[in-house]
Amino acid sequence: MMEFVKSLQCVHCGQEYDPAVIELYCPDCGYNDGILNVVYDYDSIGKQFNPSSLKDCRRYSMWRYLPLLPVADSDTIPHLQVGWTPLYRAPLLAAELGVANCYVKDEGRNPTASFKDRASSIGVIKAIEKKAARITCASTGNAASSLAGFAAAAQLPATIFVPKTAPEAKIAQLLIYGAQVFAVDGTYDQAWELCMEASAEFGWYNRNCAVNPNLIEGKKTVSLELVEQILALGEAMPDWVAVSVGDGCTVGGVYKGLWEMVRLGFIAKVPKILGVQAEGCQPFVTSWQNDAPLIPCEALTLADSIAVGHPRNFAKGLQAITQSEGAYIAVTDAEILAAMKLLARKAAVFGEPAGVAAAAGVQRAVSAGIIDKSATVAILVTGNGLKDIKSAVKAAGSPIIIPPSLAAVKAAVK
Fold it and tell me: Fewer CB within 10 Å: C terminus or N terminus of the chain?
């Protein structure tokens, strides 16, 4: 709970702030550099949050981790079931990817069918705490539909900015939940800047994860769950955790959750993290490979959820890979489409393009010698395939058209 939150610390200059005074970003460094991190009193948390206490907890959702979340009042928690998504052993997929063992965590099982529900649930709670009249965000699709769903659960008006190229299914989700939707005739980065301007102009609560440190706290719960679920199986932690990367918030959250489980004594070390981007939009890969600062780029990929040419949480996204001694890698759109089929047919999990990019990245990383063939990997599938039917159809191919006769079936079977 908030009693364990000590401060918000700027990742750029190190200055610490009272979260009751400063919430979004460091005023000295600005929102491009002054990303904040929620700092907790882990010594106090450890006295009531440990393997023994969790063993007796029957709250199978992300709210079992309340001591590690910036929530002031548990009565503001929405009724929607979020978190505690299934973790599957996937031996057939492991064989195809070229690794010894593989786990798949299906985040498409969250209420609006994506990982972003973990963040949006926190965002809506913080907006209620601030007595905000409206909440807003910019998104390539999933954060938007997620916010719309959780805003509806709280009966909180929402205004959302998306690029007009966002998949139709995601825009339909926004509208069905009752959000006000602005489809911006431009890129995601332009939609993001417009959202920032509108938020400041109208005083709307800003759910944008890159400038709101509370949102990553929701995202990190996927790692807290992963650790618990692996340990419950009586097995060792995976050598690698693979996740697709857009603006850097998700991979930053994945790292923080793993680090906290080390800090609190659940596991001995943080697994290596594989950050996966699309070749048509790979600013993190470029920076990591060349040990260079961020160079924004175009976003040319069908994986809309990671089509972010100017990642706003660059510091945390890069830190996650360097501090876990992991790696960044890029995959083609063709590899992503192939991974949609592979994941569905070998693990029976239907993921959207960005959701399966991590699986494609594992396959590429094994071929490149980054991941050893003896390794165990956990793949985070961040969104359901029904979010982007056009890509699914492109990946799966066409049905066999026949007349309504058994003879036609027999001919087709032959």
Answer: C
Q: What was the pLDDT predicted at 240?
A: 98
Query: Residue 384 in contact with residue 401, Cβ under 8 Å?
Result: no
Separation CA 248–CA 243 (nearest Å):
11
Contact 162, 171 (CB under 8 A): yes
How many helices, marked H, and strands, marked E, lie in the chain?
17, 13
The CA angle 166-311-302, to the nearest 5 degrees, is 35
Structure tokens at 286: 């470029």
Helix (H, G, I), strand (E, B) or coil at 35: strand
- The structure tokens 């539909």 sit at 145
Helix (H, G, I), strand (E, B) or coil at 23: coil
Q: At what angle do helices 283-290 and 314-323 cross, to 10 degrees?
A: 50
Q: How far apart are the first and last CA of the chain?
A: 63
CA distances from 123 to 126, 130, 249 (A): 5, 11, 14
User: How far is Cα 195 from Cα 386, in angstroms, rounded to an integer?
Assistant: 27
pTM of the model: 0.95
Q: Which domains does the chain have, with CATH numbers?
A: 87-113+216-396 (3.40.50.1100)
Q: What is the pLDDT of residue 170?
A: 85
Q: Which pLDDT score is estimated for 88? A: 98
Give me the average pLDDT of each 10-residue run along the chain (414 residues).
89 93 90 91 94 89 97 94 97 98 98 96 96 93 90 97 88 93 91 93 92 95 98 96 96 98 97 98 97 94 93 94 98 98 98 97 98 98 94 93 95 91
Residue 257 and residue 220 in contact, taking contact as beta carbons nearer than 8 Å: yes
Pairwise CA distance, residues 243 & 381, whole Å: 7
